[in-house]
Design a protein that fits this description.
alpha+beta; Cytochrome p450; 5-stranded mixed β-sheet; 3-stranded antiparallel β-sheet; 17 helices
Length: 395
C-alpha cells in the first residue's frame, strides 16, 4: 500500500478545539490524505478531496457510520439514522420524505413567525444592553421557533440542546467528552424518543408531515419515528452554532456589520459567509467500501477517513483570502452543510432562521461590540461557543 504522510495531530483534543486552524493548515499542506496514527484513521482537509469524497457515496459510504465507530464491526449506541447513516437506495426513500416536509413551499408559512420571533429576541437583547449572545440570541431564537415548527409539546424542551450535543459528541472516540455525554444521556434520549411518536406531535407541524408519509405507504410507522428523531438530533444545535458564529463574525469584523446595516438584504450572505468561515459541523467520517487511490495513496477497504469540512472551507487552493469574513464573497461550493446526496436536509430551515435573525439585527442594532472574550464549547463534532459577551447599541 502506498503510504500517506502521517501527522501527530489529535482532532479531538481540547487544544485543537480552541484553535484548530494551524492544524488544518498542516493537514492541507501535508497531502491530499493524511494518516493520523493517534487514532489509526485517515484525514482529508483540502477542498477538492473533501468535496469529492462527500459526493462519492459508493466509495466513501455513510452507512458504516459517520463517526469513529464502524457499524460493520461495532454496534451503534442507538439505531442508525435513516438519512445521515444510510446510503442509497434506502437513503433515497427516507430523504424523499424529508425533502418534501422541508421544501420551500412547506416552510414558506414560517417566514412571518421567524421574523416576529427574531425581532422579539433582538429587542430583548437590546434592552439588556450588554448580553451573552449565545443564550440570549443564538439559543433563544431557534428555541423559540424550531420546536413549534416541529410540533413538539411545551414541556421538556430543555432536553433538546443536551440531546443534540450528546449525538454530536458520540461521533467521536471514547474520550472524556463522549463518555460524559453518554453517562447523562438517559433522560434526554427518553424525552426525544417520546416526542418522535405521532401521538405527541401537533397535527400541523413538520413531525406530523413526516408521519403522514407513513399513511401513504412511503415509509413505515417505525421509520417515521426515526426520521423525526433525525431532525430533532441535527436541527437545533447546528443552527445555534451557526448563529453564534455569525454574531461572532459581525462583532469581530465591524466593517461587515456596517455593510449589513446599510443593506439588510445582505443577511443571507452574512450567514452564508459565517457558515463557510466557521463551519459549525467541523468534521464527519466516511468509510471506504473498496480499495481506493487518492492522489497516489491507496486506501484499503474499511478505512475510516475524517473529512475536515472547516479546513476545506478555508483552503487557499479554493478560496481567495480564506480567513477573512467577506460579505461580497461568492460562497457557492462551501461544504459546511456537506455535499452530494447526504447534504444537510434541514439546510433551508437553518438558512431561514439565520437570515431572519441577522435581518432583525441589521434593522434594530447600530453597533455590535465584543464585551469580553468568547468561550468555546468543546464538542467532538461541532465548533460552538458557550459564551459570547456582546454590547449592543440600538439604532
Amino acid at each position: 500500500m502506498d503510504q500517506a504522510p502521517a501527522l501527530d495531530i489529535d482532532p479531538f483534543a481540547a487544544s485543537f478545539f480552541d484553535d484548530p486552524f494551524p492544524a488544518h493548515a498542516a493537514l492541507r499542506d501535508a497531502g491530499a490524505v493524511v494518516f493520523l496514527p493517534r487514532h489509526g484513521f485517515y484525514a482529508a482537509a483540502r477542498w477538492q478531496e473533501v468535496h469529492a469524497m462527500l459526493n462519492d457515496w459508493q466509495g466513501f459510504c455513510s452507512s458504516r457510520g459517520v463517526g469513529v465507530s464502524d457499524f460493520a464491526r461495532e454496534k451503534p449506541w442507538r439505531p442508525p439514522s435513516l438519512v445521515l447513516e444510510a446510503d442509497p437506495p434506502a437513503h433515497t426513500r427516507a430523504r424523499t420524505v424529508l425533502d418534501r416536509a422541508l421544501a420551500p413551499a412547506a416552510l414558506r408559512p414560517l417566514r412571518a413567525a421567524l421574523a416576529e420571533a427574531a425581532a422579539e429576541c433582538v429587542e430583548a437583547a437590546l434592552a439588556a444592553g450588554e448580553c451573552d449572545a449565545i443564550p440570549a440570541l443564538a439559543e433563544a431564537f431557534p428555541l423559540a421557533v424550531f420546536p413549534d415548527a416541529m410540533g413538539l409539546t411545551r414541556e421538556g424542551r430543555e432536553h433538546l440542546l443536551p440531546y443534540g450535543s450528546l449525538a454530536f459528541n458520540a461521533f467521536g472516540p471514547d474520550n472524556e467528552l463522549r463518555r460524559a455525554a453518554l453517562a447523562e444521556a438517559a433522560p434526554h434520549v427518553a424525552w426525544v424518543g417520546a416526542q418522535c411518536r405521532r401521538e405527541n406531535l401537533a397535527p400541523d407541524g413538520i413531525g406530523a408531515a413526516i408521519h403522514a408519509a407513513a399513511d401513504r405507504g412511503e415509509i413505515t410507522a417505525e421509520e417515521a419515528v426515526l426520521l423525526v428523531r433525525s431532525l430533532l438530533t441535527a436541527g437545533l444545535d447546528t443552527t445555534v452554532s451557526a448563529i453564534g458564529a455569525a454574531l461572532h463574525c459581525l462583532a469581530t469584523f465591524p466593517h461587515a456589520f456596517a455593510q449589513l446595516r446599510a443593506d439588510p438584504t445582505l443577511a443571507r450572505a452574512a450567514f452564508e459567509e459565517a457558515l463557510r468561515l466557521e463551519s459549525p459541523v467541523q468534521t464527519f467520517f466516511r468509510t471506504t467500501t473498496r480499495p481506493i487511490e487518492v492522489d497516489g495513496t491507496t486506501l484499503g477497504e474499511g478505512d475510516k477517513v475524517l473529512l475536515f469540512l472547516c479546513a476545506a472551507n478555508r483552503d487557499p487552493r479554493r478560496w481567495d483570502r480564506p480567513d477573512e469574513y467577506d460579505l461580497s464573497r461568492r460562497t457557492a461550493g462551501h461544504v459546511a452543510f456537506g455535499s452530494g446526496v447526504h447534504m444537510c436536509v434541514g439546510q433551508l430551515l437553518s438558512r431561514l432562521e439565520g437570515e431572519a435573525l441577522l435581518t432583525a439585527l441589521a434593522r434594530r442594532v447600530a453597533a455590535i461590540e465584543p464585551a469580553g472574550p468568547p468561550v468555546r464549547r468543546h464538542n467532538n463534532t461541532l465548533r460552538a461557543l458557550a459564551h459570547l459577551p456582546l454590547h449592543l447599541r440600538a439604532a
